[in-house]
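Table 4 source record.
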Amino acid sequence: MDDRKDHAARAGSSARALGFWAALALVMGNLIGSGIYLLPATLAPLGANAAWGWVVTIAGAMTLSFVFARLAAAVPAGGGPYAYADAAFGPAIGFATAWSYWTLVWAGNGAVAVAVVSALSLAIPSLAPHAAIAAVALVWLAVLVNIRGVGVAARVQMATMVVKLVPLAAVVALAGWWWLTRGAGAPDFAPAVPVTAGAVAGAAALTFWGFLGVESATVPAERVADARRTVPRVTMIGAAATGAIYLAVSGAVTLLMPREALAASPAPIAAALGLAFGDGIARIVALFAAVSALGALNGFVMLQGEVPRAMALGGVFPRWFAKETAAGTPARAHLVSGVMVTAVTLANYTRGMGDLFAFVAAVSLAAGMFAYGASALAAVRLLRGDRAAQGAGVVCAIFIAWLSWGLGAEANLWALVLLAAGVPVYLAVRRGGAIGR
């Protein structure tokens, strides 16, 4: 633990520390990435269930962000969900939580990279048959950026954050103008898709993809300036702002585009505006969508290196992963994570872009549910003097269990296999004597 304190002191006092705006860009940049650009197509077959899914997910995500904000104030240590589970339940649950979250991040990065390629394919159609290979190349580009240093990654994150907000604002404004002046009809929620509890749960499980990263600032907390104050603020502000943006943008797209065409589009927002204003606009929006998803990929690649580093410093992962470069980055953790993303993405090479995105996203979500559930229960145990946070923790635990059910058997089975792969690692580290406080 002394090593961990030394690392924290160096990170907090160095020029690499993330300030308020960089931390907010990390949160919002990770939240606003691939989801808002690809989910409208994935959700289109669900009809009105998708709208209810967004409503339930936004409420659940805001509750979860409240829990993370309170936990971050009480336990301002690096590692995010791992740090909270370790403090509440000990190293064994801490390891399981960290492994779950790490799996969520690196597996999800494959889906985010596919989203970048999906958007680019509208402007460069020749990319479509090679989506998996192009996605892997983008992952390794982001890995190299993050190995260069946290400062470099933070500047990339802030730049892409500014860029991605411009087209989203334009999407809402243009859709509103089109609807008011051209007399667009109501959203295409056909009665052939009845609203059911199972369908709403399935929609919510997918829309929750758009809120993965609400805890982003908690993971590199040791690198955040004034973490006890900054991390809770950016967590709550980022989640609230993102929820408002999602509602506005998703509503605009459903007004602009028939459901059948929406479901078949690899870049639905760009295609929706293309129907209204021509292919030129569609290509421009697709490029902005690619930048947006690329920013999210950059932020999540940062996390895929920071999680195993925090585990190693906490003694529940091989110390090999804690080794840092001269720039202060966990290069070994980044490289191993990059190899794992590559394997999962290429193993599903034959799937189409839409199917590849939906599959990898569902598997990564299922794998990460344990981490979110453990964090919610950690709030109940650690924040005993905070009744509001404890109540929110209970609500979040129920919400996470419901989302897991909505993801279905295939995704949960794949997640179980990925999580089981962590057992030999835990046993090996334990035999080596690293497990413990």
